[in-house]
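ok so for the tutorial part 2 we go from a plain amino acid sequence to predicted structure tokens. step 1 is just haveing the sequence, like this:
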Amino acid sequence: MLDALWTPILAGDIPLPHRLAMAPLTRSQSTPEGVPTALNAEYYAQRASHALLITEGTQPSADGQGYLTTPGIYSEEQIAGWRKVTDAVHAADGRIVIQLMHVGRISHPDNAPHGRQPVAPSAIKPAGVTFTASGLREMPEPRALSTEEVTATVDDFRRAAAAAIAAGADGVEIHGANGYLVHQFLSTHTNQRTDRYGGSIENRIRFAVEVAAAVADEIGAGRTGIRLTPGNPFKINDLKESDTDELYPALVQALAPLDLAYLHIGHAGDDDLLHTLRKLWPTTLLLNRAGTDIPTRAKDVEDGLADVITVGSLALANPDLVERIRVGAPLNAPDPDTFYGGGAAGYTDYPTYTG
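step 2 — the prediction. this is what the tokens look like for a chain of 355 residues:
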């Protein structure tokens, strides 16, 4: 069964040597100005044997930042920082795409470089708290973007995609999942607009499609991927969806003509919907079946449900995961206490397999 993992495949314009990729993982190791550091470069280069590295969520603008010390890709300093990362990955014969993540309402003014109120499709306050430099703070009510500002935000994604390519990335992944801005436009829970971006399914998917089209136009469809989590199965960021069976087929059908490099699905629930989306998607499909073992995920490739599988915490704890799986070596266990922030501990210090 695991043999299915080791055949090459083309994801748009990105040739992948096998089918085991690294999922995006927020790690909060950049500077306060959102500039990747030498530690980031070491971290990604260590994992370059994965078929594709999808980076942590990276803000396309100052409005897009929700967490401390996460990277951006909209300033010259950030581009230079990412160039060190991509150079290190390419020197190790890897491939890397930068995930563009605008958090929308999942933020706090203390965490934004301009200190402004978060923005969102609608002024609906999220439940819960977020970590700031002064400790845990309740997330405030966001400000609803005007129609003109929505268009400007699409352009932010376009510029960030161009910046990612200037930084040497092989492409970008648009984060349309996990309750962040693109996902917020999809859900009637977080989108109660009355303009062309709200109400009907056609209107609610408009922002996601416009962002994908703008990015593909800027850097090429073959370098553009998008990540979705239908139904928000991981229950992240206080976002609820009630019409997934109609919404996601409509969204995937609207995205399909763009001929993107790949669709990346985070799945933990509706198998019938997953099979439907597989049939509707014309290019490479990446699947993240969180919490399952490698044989279970490899079967998705063998069965044709996925073309590539992505792994998160396993890739974190095992920089050499590909080699370990090939030879059947034991796997390191991830240390959740070290997932966010800090130094090398739990970031670049996991032991490699020595045979």
